[in-house]
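Troubleshooting log. The previous structure file for this entry was overwritten by mistake, so regenerating from the original sequence record. Sequence copied from the archived sheet and checked twice against the printout by T.R.
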Amino acid sequence: HGVKLSSLGKKEEVEDNTDENMEGALIARDRVGVQDFVLLDSHTSETAFLNNLRKRYQENLIYTYIGTLLVSVNPYKELDIYTVTQMQLYRGVNFFELPPHLYAIADNAYRVMCSEYNNHFILISGESGAGKTEASKKILQYYAVTCPTTEQLQIVRDRLLLSNPVLEAFGNAKTLRNDNSSRFGKYMDIQFDFKGAPVGGHILSYLIEKSRVVHQNHGERNFHIFYQLLEGGDKDLLCWLGLERNPQKYAYLIQGRCAKVFSINDKNDWKIVRKAFSIIDFTEKDIEHLFGIVASVLHLGNIQFEEDSNGHAIIRDGTQIKWISKVSLLRYPLNVDLAFYARDAVAKAIYGRTFTWLVNKINGSLANKDSTRKTVIGLLDIYGFEVLDTNSFEQFCINYCNEKLQQLLIEMTLKAEQEEYELEGIEWEPIPYFNNKIICDLVEQKHKGIISILDEECLRPGEATDLSFLEKLEEKVGDHAHFVTRKLADQKTRKSIDWVDFRLLHYAGEVTYCAVGFLEKNNDLLYRNLKEVLCNSKNGIIRECFLLSELDNRRRPETVATQFKNSLMSLIEILMSKEPSYVRCIKPNENKEPGKFDDYLIRHQVKYLGLMEHLRVRRAGFAYRRKYELFLQRYKSLCPATWPHWHGPAAEGVERLIKHIGYKPEEYKLGRTKIFIRFPKTLFATEDAFEFRKHLLAMSLLFFFLPVSRLQAKYKGCLGKREYQKKREAGRSSGTEDSLLQAVLSSRSCCFGRFLWLASVLAWPAGTGKGSEPCSRAPWQGETLIPPRCFQYVTPVIKYDRNGFKPRDRLLVLTQSSAYVVEMAKIKQKIDYATLKGISTSNLSDGIVVIHVPEDNKQKVENCDVATGGLWLEARACS
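Regenerated output below.
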C-alpha cells in the first residue's frame, strides 16, 4: 500500500499497483470533477471543459491533467501544497497515482530521465500573471529538496535557486496584469550526473524588453533592480553612485506613476539579491561595476536637451554628466529629436547587453567542468500570448514565439500518439485539429514572410517608414487568409482597424498590431560614435559588452526580428531532441482576486493556449488506455473466470473479462500490450461495477471470517477449561506447597500482563476531542488518565447497574494510592484509599468484596469469576 492525497488534501491509503493510475480521477469525479480532462465525456465541449475547471478551482484544486499536460490555475493565495512533506509524498510515485500536481510533472520527468538516461524539458506557458515564473521556481525547489546531495552539490543547488532572484531583479517588472512579470524568455538546463544529482546548469535568455528601460505605460514600472537599489542600498553606496532614495527624481522611473507597489518589498528583495551575488560567485568589483551601470542609466534618463541657435541640441543641465562621463567629453552635432533618440538608444543598449553579461556570468558559476556525459531537464519559462490595448513590435515577436511553441506541442503530441498506435498495432484515426503552420509561414517564410518584408524595409536605401512597411505587407501578403488591414478589410471590419494597423488571425484569435515603431525597434541602431565611447569605458562590464572588434566589423548587424527568429529556431531544435512535459498556466481574473473565476477571461485563455486542440489530439479516439496486467489486476474480480487468480496470459484474461462485462466492439480495441477504451462512460461504468463488487467481497469475507472467529473463541474456551481443570486437580493432588503457589502465580502473571497492557492503552495521553472530555474534567490526572508506572494490579470485572443490574465490562485498576473503575474511553470512578471506611469479604465462593466508601461516592457493583483469579466487588455507600 502507498499514500495519496485525497481531493481535500488529506492522506489516504491506496493500492500501489499501477504505473499510470487514473483510478483516483475515477473515484473523485462526482465530487470535484475529473482530474484528467481526457475522461470528460463531452471532450469537444468548451463549456464542459470550463465547468470541470471551475468545479475544481472552487475546491482549491488548481491542477488538472490533460493526459500528461498539466493545467494550472493561479489561486492568488497561499496554499499548503508546496511543503517538504508534499515533495516527499510525490517523490518516486508513479504518474497519475496521486492527485494532479506540479511535483508530479517534475518527478515524472526526473524518474524517466534517470531510468532511460535521456533528456527532458518542461514547457511552462501562459499569459502574464498566470503563475509561470512561480511554477518554474517550485520545480527548481523540488529538485533541490528531493535529489541526492553532497556538500559540493549543495553549492550548485544554491546557485541554481538564487539565480532566480537575480534574473527577476534585472528582467522582471510590474505590468498592468502582473506585479512580477517576466519581461524576457528563459530556458534553463539543469544538468544531472549518473546518480541523478544536479551538478550544473545553463541558461538561455530571449528578447529582453529593452524598451521598458526608457518608457513604461501608465500603471507599470521599470525593472525591479532600479527600485531595489534606491530602496535597499545603504547610504554610502547611494552617495558613491550619486543617487537619491526618492524614485520620483528619475525620469526613467516616473512614467508609469506607480513607483511604490503594495505587493512588492523592494528593500527585502534587495537583501536577497545581494546575498545571491555572493553565492553565485560575483566579485566585489563585478558588483561595483554592475551597480554603476544601473545608476548610470538613471542619470542618463535625467539628461535633457534644448536647441541652440544653430539648431543643434545642447544639454540643458550638465550636473548629470559628471556621473556618466568623468574623464572626457565628446561633442557630436545632433538635433534635439536625434539627441533624445541617441540618449535612449544608449540606455537600452547598455541595459540589454548588461543583462546578457549577467546571464553569462551566472552560467559561468553553474558550469560543470566534468567532461563525463550528463543528462538534463530543461525548464522553459516564456511569455504567453499577449493581446493588449495597443500591440506593438514586442507583442508581435511574443505571439510569433507562441505560434511556434503551439506548433511544436501539436506535432510532438501527435507524433507520440501515432507512435503508440503503431507499437500497439492499432489503426491510426485522423484527428481534426487546426494546423497553425500556415500562420508560422506567414510570419517567418523566407522572402515572403512578414519578418523578411520588415527587414527589407529596414535595410533598403531611401526613405523607409512604418507606413511604407504597411504598404509592402498589403502588396506581398494581402491575399493571405490570416492577414488583413483597413484597406483590405470589408465594410464591417474596417471600423475596428486604424490606417496604421494590421491584423493577424492567430491560432488563439485575432490580434491587431500598430505598425508605428516597428522599423525603429527592429533596427535597434546605435550610432557608431556612441559605440566608440562605450568601448573605451572604464567600467569593466561595459568593456566586455562593447568590444573594439565590433568597430572593425563593417557588416550591418542582424535585425532584432531576425535574431529572435534564429534563436527561436535553435530553441525548437533543442526541444525537439528532448522528451516533453507541458504546464499551461491560466489566470482566473484580472484583479488578482482569490476564488474569483472569470468565465470570459478563462475561455479566452483556454482558446489561445490551445487546450481544446490538445485535448482532441490526446483523446485520439480513445479516452483510456492501460497495460493488460494492470487492467486485469484492478478489475479481475468482475469476472468469475479471472477471480481470484488468472493463470494464463494477461491479454487473454482481459479478453475474457471484457466479454463477461459486456463491452461492445465499438467501445474498445485490444493492442499488443494495452487495452484501449473509447468512451469515458464505458470506463466509469466499469469502475462503478468494481466499487460495488468491492463491497460484496468485503461482506463475503466478513461472513466467512465471523464463524471462524467464533470457532477460535470456542477452541480457546475449551483450552481455558482444560487448563482450569488441570490446575484444580493439581490443588487436590499431593505436591509441595511451593510448586502449587508457583503455578498460580505464573497463571496470574500471564493474565495480569495482558490486562496491564490494556490499561496502558487506556492511559494513553488524552487529546482535546469529544472522546477525551472526562480527562478535561479531571484535574488530578495530568496528561494521562492513569500513569502506567503507578499500576499495582489490574483485573477485568463486570459492572452491574444499580437499577436493573445490567452487566457492563470494566477494568479495576489498583495503584499505590487509589482504586479506579475504568471504562474503555473514560474513568468511571476513583476511590482514594484514604477515604475507605473498610472492606468486607464473603466467606462463600461467590467472590463478593464489599468496599465501604463515603456517602458522596456513587454506588457500584462489580463482578468477576474467582476461579480465574478475579474477584467479586460490590461498592456500597456506608455510613
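The longest strand covers residues 791-800. Archived copy saved in two places this time.
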